[in-house]
Amino acid sequence: MTLRSRTAATVALTLTLAACGGTPSVTPPIQTAHSSTVEPAGTTPGVAATPAGETSDPGQPTTGSVLGNGRPVTISVIIGGTTTQSDGTYSATGVSRACGNAMVNLTGNLRAFNLEFPFEATPSVENVSFAAEDLVAGSTTGAFHIDLNVITPSGHSPPSLVIDTTDVADGNTGTATLSEAGGTTTLVVSAVDDLGASVQITAKCGPQPA
């Protein structure tokens, strides 16, 4: 038998075995010379993972220095013209819940400012919540919201004094000024509601502890 005849016979035998149910052998895949890159679990291939504690968008900061939580605060409040026995001068020192842009991660507004005080109760100033949508260091605004609670020298806790100047139709007026110097943020607020109740607030937030 010639070489060509033997080759033809071999091919014919292979086809016959396959037709009779024989399983052809499987050749393992050829390994390439380069090694593959292993992506961390939970990441999209080709996209670098964001380090813990950071945001993937540098325009949306989440650091404590932006929020202003835990900053030392000295605050003074003068209230007048109320019918709730709130009139008087109050002062306190403590730690902020926020003294910065506390809503940036929800709103994306980089020009807002919030003061939330105190983190723990103080003897005279029970709560100060201030918010302005457009108030950055070195500027003044006439549109803001204040929610204030004090404790009188007799231990009385009057209802909240709320003044919202964001809608001029409500008849509430005021100004708020924000400044920054040497790591200290100073907020000065003066407001009067439509019934004649007035409030003046001066708050100084020191640098956030390292």
Classify the beta-strand content into a percent band: 25-35%
- Calculate the mean pLDDT score and round it: 79
Largest sheet: 6 strands, antiparallel
Q: How many helices in DSSP terms? A: 3
Give the CA-CA distance, first to last residue. Answer: 92 Å
**Rg value:** 35 Å
SSE arrangement, N to C: HHEEEHEEEEEEEE
Structural class: mainly beta
Low-confidence stretches: 1-63
Features:
210 residues, mainly beta, six-stranded antiparallel β-sheet, 11 strands, 34% strand, disordered N terminus
Provide the fold topology.
Layout: H1 3-19, H2 64-67, E1 72-80, E2 88-95, E3 98-100, H3 104-107, E4 113-117, E5 125-132, E6 139-141, E7 145-150, E8 161-164, E9 173-181, E10 184-192, E11 198-205
Antiparallel strand pairs: 1-2, 1-11, 3-4, 4-5, 5-7, 6-9, 7-8, 9-10, 10-11
